[in-house]
Amino acid sequence: METIVANPSRAELIAASSLEALLRTYSGVVYPLNCDAMGHMNVQYYVAAFDQAMWHLVHALGYRAEWQTEHSQGWADVQHTVSFSKELKIGSLFYIDSTVGRVGQTSLTTLHKLYDMTGNLSAANEIKSVYFDLKERRSLPLPDVIRLEAEQSLFRLQDIQPL
To answer: What pLDDT is attached to residue 23?
Structure first.
């Protein structure tokens, strides 16, 4: 018989979270227009893919795009730390796995790894994003739903090799 908790603790809410520690947040293909003069995917397209991965991750944490218009709340990236380890060429298929690296009062640090389809790491990005009041142009505390999901993701990540 399942026990029902009338006023669950923060730890009980975190334990009930459904977000996996690592989440597939983006898949793509390298087109000729994505490449530089040397035939490799250009840096701007790596960053664009990481940016889209971040939006999928915060959605999985509970953020909704409608909050931008309904509540004037969104995200401001304040730091990207990108490292490259293997070039992607025209026609390469790739994917990004993402997770939460740190939960602050007003910010999330998210970790993203971009792999080719054989599982070779091509690039990694650590993004610090501040939750933001779009009208007042100031940081806001993370909403509870996002904080709880992000903390649960960190909890589950303890059993997995860090990005």
So the answer is: 92
> pTM, whole model, 2 decimals?
0.83
Q: In the chain, which ranges are E strands? A: 23-29, 73-84, 93-103, 107-116, 121-133, 138-139
Closest by CA position to 140, among listed 81, 67, 54, 52: 67
Cβ neighbours of 64 (radius 10 Å): 12
- 131, two tokens: 């939750």
Long-range contacts of 106-109 (CB under 8 A, 24+ apart): 106/130, 106/131, 106/139, 106/140, 106/141, 106/142, 107/78, 107/131, 107/139, 107/142, 108/58, 108/61, 108/142, 108/146, 108/150
* pLDDT tens string 10-49: 444 334 444 556 899 999 999 999 999 999 999 999 999 9
